[in-house]
Design a protein that fits this description.
Blueprint: E1 2-5, E2 8-11, H1 19-29, E3 34-35, H2 43-57
Antiparallel strand pairs: 1-2, 1-3
Length: 84
């Protein structure tokens, strides 16, 4: 999660390949001052967590689209029909 104010998420995302590179992209844009990272055992687990955060904070996020389903994911979003 990325935030411009501590404790108030403005963007949720994940990287299935290179988190460091993804965070550097966001840092270069200078939109957000804070980030929070979680480690998950699989891309499926990370997608399900990201989707849950997306739905929970949807009214305050800068995200314009639902998180993408990772390749080979077992099922889609647990909160809506996206990716099923």
């Amino acid at each position: 999660m990325l935030a411009d104010t501590p404790g108030i998420p403005r963007y949720v995302g994940r990287s299935d390949v290179n988190l460091r590179s993804r965070l550097r992209q966001h840092a270069a844009a200078e939109e957000y001052r804070y980030f929070y990272v979680e480690h998950h055992r699989s891309a499926d687990d990370a997608f399900h967590r990201e989707s849950g955060l997306y739905h929970h904070y949807i009214h305050q996020l800068d995200n314009l689209v639902h998180p993408g389903v990772p390749r080979g994911c077992r099922g889609g979003c647990p909160r809506c029909s996206y990716g099923h």
